[in-house]
Amino acid sequence: MPLLPCACCLRADRLDLWNRTDPFPGIYIALLGMVTFTCDQIGKRPQTVILVTVFLFQPKLLSNFHLTSLGSTIKVKQAINQTVCFFVEERRMGAKGEKTRQKILEDAAELFHTKGFGATSVRDLLQVTGMTKGSLYFHFSGKDEIGLEYLRQAGERFMAFLDEGLEGPSAVEKLDNFLQQAFAYHRARGFVGGCLFGNTALETSDTAPAFARVTAATFNQWRKKLAVIIEQAQNDGTVCRIRSADELAEFVIAALEGGIMQSRLHKSEAPMRNCVETLRMMLYSDKTDLQPHKPH
Fold first, then answer.
1. How many whole angstroms separate alpha carbon 37 and alpha carbon 289?
2. CA of 262: how far to CAs of 240, 252, 256, 259, 270, in Å?
3. Does domain 97-141 have CATH number 1.10.10.60?
4. Rounded to an integer, what distance in angstroms lies between the CA atom of residue 176 and that of residue 171?
């Protein structure tokens, strides 16, 4: 696929593209479409599209890429080689840049989890990543972009966490496994940090719409996943029909978030343990073999 722009270059000398003065003939549009498509397929940034497009249309403008000196006698083969080298180098640098971006997000994780997005400063990020401000802003436009990208990726990881917990031979066992998993996760953290999404909902709902939207989307996905399992359990008679599956899913989330918050506040497992026990007592019918017991 990266050879497609080169094919365009090979046709350019026959079409006398360099010397055309009409503003946007059909060939210009066709070449632009081909270049844009190619760059998109291999993950290039917009400046790459601009560079290659200008190279095809007006090579004399690219003095920084040492094409001016070749003037009108530029050899198509040399131009192809230089363009291909640029693509290869940018692709290599792009992979390295993505690794650095991920490293920044990993380093910032605990800050966002414990301090929140608003209270985390750029200085905090510089300290925890060990980067200079220039390097940090090279990879992200600012603190909000770092925070939003971290929140999106955390949402994806949380969905995988849910899928892992909602496993079991029956619907009610899937639900029970999830409740046990949630308790075990927060106990392992010493009830430090709480739930990232619950924290962010409280912090940003009235002040940071972009963060609130990402958080709301995560809660909606969580509710839908739980509702599917609860409805299955209701259909086989192991979860009570005191409310609809969707309403019970909403209640489970609200109860868990409250239990997590109280355990974080008191640094005690008792509030969340009581929450899980009560949920099991309220949800499970007499038909289930799972009797209320303390989480382990």
1. 58
2. 27, 15, 10, 5, 9
3. yes
4. 9
Cα distance between the two ends of the chain:
55
Residue reference for tokens 């639900």: 175
Q: Token pair of 83, please?
A: 């363009």
What is the predicted pLDDT for the residue at 97?
80
List the beta bridge partners of residue 284.
239
Boundaries of every domain in the chain: 4-96, 97-141, 144-283
**Tens digit of each residue's pLDDT (9 = 90 or more) over 21-66:** 444 444 444 444 555 545 444 444 444 444 444 444 444 444 444 4
Do the domains at 97-141 and 144-283 have one common CATH topology?
A: no
- Which residue from 239, 243, 255 is spatially nearest to 175, judged by alpha carbons? 239
- Greatest distance between any 2 Cα atoms in the chain: 88
239 beta partners:
284
Which CATH number fits the domain 144-283, given the four candidates 1.25.40.20, 2.40.50.1000, 1.10.357.10, 3.40.50.920?
1.10.357.10
Q: How confident is the model over 223-263, as pLDDT tens digits?
A: 999 999 999 999 999 999 999 999 999 999 999 999 999 99
Report helix, strand and coil shares of the chain as percent, to nearest 5.
75, 0, 25
pLDDT at residue 124 above 60?
yes
Per-residue tokens: 26:
């059909």
